[in-house]
Design a protein that fits this description.
Oligomer: single chain
Strand content: 15-25%
Strand order of the largest sheet: 5-14-8-13-12-9-11-10
Low-confidence stretches: 1-63
Distance between the termini: 19 Å
Helix content: 25-40%
Structural class: alpha/beta
Radius of gyration: 29 Å
Largest sheet: 8 strands, parallel
Length: about 775
């Protein structure tokens, strides 16, 4: 982590922003902010409003303690009682918090009906025919899902099917399109998929479709299978007054914890979750993790404890060359049997495929989200009819790690790359991947390949979650204090916006290779709240880094603690990175860039045509962003189109498409400076101190720039940042020192519709420093 300036400097910076107002900061504990990184650009979330709605207020959670399940919440008995496991009568309102000692599997011969008929009729009993064991489902024990947080512990026990078949209206939310679509295909007449387009098979669900389904009297119980990003649209149509008539089930909630850092809209699911009555909602997963959200900590917990849960025989390999070892293991397996390689990286999957002998290439497939079709190229595939594997060698990425049924026999190879956060798999996630096979004993062999990493974000207190919660609380305290000041003096409203921007900048954690992770967020009701799911993500990443993947031995110990039998081999140094592999990786990287560039080129042609007469709309932005690899380009264009001419902006964005964020930072600063009113004090001051035709040393640039930036942007700027800012605002040549040759270094040809007025004081909203 990058430490902030000392506490006095922090207090002084806030005081600079606040001016001489009456905000009392004396009781605030700034020490909890010391772990925040210097750079944390806020991410603006957008909502698509379908209809005009009244001003929303955050829901109040009326219960201070969990509302337990009763037998009536699990069963549809009309007699007021049921038989318990001990064959005793139990009142329907009797509290029940778990179903313990459930049988996991029951074996039936393939000709069980013939055997039963023979026994009943007294005729000779035929010889039993061997068959797969049939795994018992939740429907064997209950008629509908419990409410609260349901830890089902084992994948594939029919939780979703149970709720689909229940005698009530249900809204079942899935984190990905493929999960929702996979379940919808089973009964398209009684279920409605609500989500975006899936290849050419299913268009985006329209409002008309939803309304038609709601009015269809042939469908007695409405069952919506909803992609997370589409829940807001559905709820608007249903109406808040009807929430009590539906049961909301959020499936695979652990994926929300894992992915909310780069899909901020996922945490808004929890905002909607608490709008439903306590007995009309549940969160479900087979890999439950701790929640930092205190409201979720109050929820009823319902645990399913299974006896005879399957224990795995795992071959565990440690290596420093994941791709090469995976390729070798594939080649060692019988050539007539199917293989699944779980690896959350299309680039690495392609690397492994190219390391295989040429005769294997035709047998390979990559099963991934439809947004990654072009990255997968000719290897892209989906599950075949009957949820069978499409090829002999099948690679799956994260959208197939949870909820998807694979009804086939195969060898499983799971790869956990601890060097990349999104490719580092927890022991529970490894279990979840194993659970995708719906055949008992369908996993022919079970291999896990992994590497290690250095410890990450060690905390002196040993409680990283508590530290993050304390930091988030301090941020909210600052925002609340500033809000109170603004309410006392309406003249300070603009100043308050500056304060909020400064606070958000400090309120993020930087992780290498990822966008800054915010500790606070703006919820669905436009209220600043703690980003609990982001905190859950950070805590899990730290835990995995410091307790599982910090040592060669720890993953094996974790798997054995789950009861699995593990055989370990250390393959470190066995596969040095060969020149062939380096070439393959470089070629794959270039091929993926070409694929993205081709997609971007198509978008650019469309955008150039659109912007001949008008600006890109929010809807068009969303459509273009859905194309894999194009999100950053489209978002950047959309953000800056109001400042400069479209064609010049497109040209610059294309030039920096493969550069790091510093290149875009310079472009944004140049565009914003171009858009500033010529009489704006910040622009006027910079033009006054920096003269065209003069030369400046780096130290002089910092000396001249620092007081101007401090006064207008309330930021302390270092020498390197001062030089970068100068180069973004002026045309600069550098033989040995910096020669200013002119203005407008990006060559913008005309202004956009937005000129930032000379009265604008909150420049932090515009410039990136």
């Amino acid at each position: 982590m990058i430490d902030l300036e000392d506490l006095d400097d922090i207090a002084a910076e806030v005081a600079d922003i606040m001016g001489n107002g009456n905000l009392d900061l004396s009781n605030l504990n700034f020490s909890v902010l010391q772990e925040f990184p210097d750079e944390a650009a806020p991410v603006k979330e957008e909502k698509t409003i379908l209809v005009a709605t009244p001003q929303l207020s955050a829901p109040t959670v009326t219960t201070k303690q969990s509302v337990p399940n009763t037998y009536k919440d699990l069963h549809d008995s009309a007699d007021g009682w049921i038989s318990s496991a001990e064959d005793k009568e139990a009142l329907m309102d009797h509290e029940i918090n778990q179903l313990s000692d459930l049988s996991l599997e029951i074996g039936f011969p393939g000709n069980v009906d013939e055997i039963m008929n023979a026994l009943e009729q007294g005729t000779p009993v035929p010889i039993p025919v061997g068959s797969n064991s049939v795994q018992l489902k939740l429907s064997f024990y209950m008629d509908k899902m419990p409410h609260g947080i349901v830890d089902k512990q084992v994948a594939g026990i029919g939780a979703t099917s149970l709720e689909i078949d229940s005698k009530r209206n249900s809204i079942i939310v899935f984190p990905t399109k493929i999960l929702a679509y996979n379940k919808w295909q089973r009964n398209k007449t009684k279920l409605l998929y609500v989500g975006g387009k899936i290849n050419d098979e299913r268009d985006t669900t329209s409002i008309k479709e939803i309304q038609s389904y709601l009015s269809d009297d042939k469908v007695v119980y409405k069952k919506f299978l909803v992609v997370a990003d589409s829940l807001y649209k559905l709820l608007q149509i249903i109406g808040k007054e009807h929430y009590k008539d539906y049961f909301l089930m959020i499936d695979e909630v652990d994926m929300i914890q894992s992915e909310s850092n780069y899909r901020p809209s996922l945490e808004s699911l929890i905002d909607h979750y608490f709008e439903f009555p306590p007995k009309n909602r549940c969160l479900v997963t087979a890999t439950m993790r701790e929640f930092s959200n205190p409201q979720l900590q109050q929820e009823c917990k319902f645990n399913l404890s299974w006896k005879d849960a399957p224990k795995r025989k795992i071959q565990l390999y440690y290596t420093d060359n994941l791709d090469a070892l995976t390729s070798q293991q594939i080649q060692f397996l019988p050539p007539t049997e199917k293989i699944v390689i779980a690896y959350n990286s299309i680039r690495h999957c392609r690397n492994i495929i190219k390391l295989l002998p040429d005769e294997h290439l035709k047998d390979c497939a990559i099963l991934c989200s439809d947004s990654s079709v072009e990255e997968a190229g000719t290897y892209y595939a989906e599950l075949a009819e009957g949820n069978k594997l499409p090829k002999r060698i099948n690679f799956i990425t994260s959208c197939y790690f949870a909820g998807v049924d694979i009804e086939d026999y195969y060898h499983l190879i799971t790869v956990s790359n601890a060097r990349q956060n999104y490719q580092m798999l927890s022991p529970d996630k490894l279990t979840q991947i194993h659970g995708r096979c719906r055949f008992s004993n369908g996993i022919l062999s079970d291999t896990i390949i992994y590497n290690t990493r250095e410890k990450w974000r060690q905390n002196a207190d040993g409680d990283y979650q508590a530290t993050l919660l304390k930091q988030a609380d301090a941020l909210l305290h600052l925002q609340k204090s500033a809000s109170e000041l603004a309410e006392q003096d309406k003249d300070l409203l603009d100043l308050f916006e500056i304060v909020k921007t400064a606070i958000r900048e400090k309120g993020a954690i930087s992780i290498s290779g990822e966008r800054p992770i915010q500790l606070t967020r703006r919820d669905y009701f436009s209220k600043d709240v703690v980003a609990y799911m982001n905190i859950d993500y950070l805590v899990e990443r730290q835990k995995l880094s410091n307790t599982i993947y910090d040592s060669i031995a720890h993953l094996q110990l974790a798997l054995e603690a789950q009861g699995h039998k593990v055989t370990f081999e250390n393959r470190y140094g066995t596969f040095p990175l060969s020149e062939q592999q380096k070439k393959i990786e470089q070629v794959n990287k270039e091929e993926l860039q070409v694929t993205v560039d081709r997609r971007l080129a198509e978008i650019i042609d469309e955008v150039r045509e659109i912007t001949k007469s008008r600006h890109l709309t929010a809807g068009e932005k969303q459509t273009f962003q859905s194309r894999k690899g194009c999100s950053a380009f489209v978002n950047r264009f959309y953000s800056l189109q109001k400042y400069v001419d479209a064609n010049t902006l497109i040209d610059h964005l294309w030039e920096i498409r493969h550069s790091d964020k510093r290149a875009y930072k310079n472009l944004q600063n140049a565009a914003v400076f171009w858009a500033l009113d010529d009489k704006h004090p910040f622009k006027r001051d910079l033009l006054r101190v920096f003269k065209i035709g003069r030369k400046y040393k780096a130290s002089e640039i910092q000396e001249l720039t620092a007081p101007i930036v401090k006064y207008h942007l309330h930021k302390t700027i270092k020498q390197r940042a001062s030089v970068s800012l100068l180069k973004a605002l002026f045309l600069v040549e550098r033989p040995k020192i910096y020669l200013i040759k002119g203005k407008n270094p990006m060559g913008f040809k005309k202004h956009g519709p937005l000129r930032i007025p000379k009265t604008e004081e909150n420049l932090l909203k515009y410039f990136l420093l």
